[in-house]
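Researcher: Here's the sequence for the chain we discussed earlier.
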Amino acid sequence: MTENWTIEGPRVLDVGGAGETVTALDVSLIGGHVDVVTHDDSPTARVEVTEVSGKPLEVTWDGSHLQVRHSPVPGGLAGLGNLSELFGSGSSAFLAGLKDRFAGIDRNTARLSVSVPVGSRVEVLTVTATALVSGVGADVAVKTVSGSLTVDDVVGRTSITTVSGEVEARRLDGASAVRSVSGAVTVQASALPSADVRTVSGDITLDLTNGTAAITAHSVSGDLTVRAPYAGFDVTASSVSGAVVAGGRRLGDGSRPAAKGHLREGDGGLRITAKTVSGTVTLLHSGPGATTGDGVAAVPPAPPAPSDPQAGDPQAGEGQAHADGDGTDPVAPTGGSW
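Model: Thanks. This is the structure I predict for it:
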């Protein structure tokens, strides 16, 4: 049996009864802020609303799926149509279109917190609202037009979509997909076995704790920077004018801006396949011997043992990179460490 609540002001709502378990949460907000956190001591959920302006907040529960919506159209933001196409139009065009269709839409704001069981799937869609999603042990999808989003401590697949809003993600464990028009996306201290990155002009940064991964990237002018403790890499890339640098080696021979080819070092465990027009692709090593963009050691190396015949030679024992196609050009890594 489906239950519905209409919330016009501050309220605390406990959702779920005997024999019921919250397995999925969907939140749709225009403006304001939402915190999505988790607990492991109950199969039910709690919705705490501190502020509502404009249209009432709508809450729907069907025994497993919890929906919290704040939208001028039936069905929440999904009722606006294909969000992927709308997001692709750019945040200014998207917001202008909404205001044309729905007078006073920007007055619809809400501030709330939702706590769900740790194993619940979570999806959060916002226009200008900011959001935090933390502690989820299942798949997470976040989409925004211009709101700032934070995703933290997720074990499961993550999907991040933004037009111009900045997205910060930390401690992700699972495959990830990133879509951006102009918003910057930064993923820190995360174990991503695979990542699919597509951006127009937004810069994407992946700071990995794992040394083996499969990363696919498509960019127009947005930069992709990957930092990882790899034992080796395998980079296949094509670029019109953007630089492609891996392990201090530049793809191409420097005679023309375009570059297309293959770089490999060590065991090739970190695989990157990238296509870019003018965006740069940079792979940095996060272990001892890593350098910043100025060639300065990012992590001071341990002093060599006196008996080591190779002491003082920073190149001793390092793998060799090679290229197929246009060759390589040794350079200091760009982008630096962060």
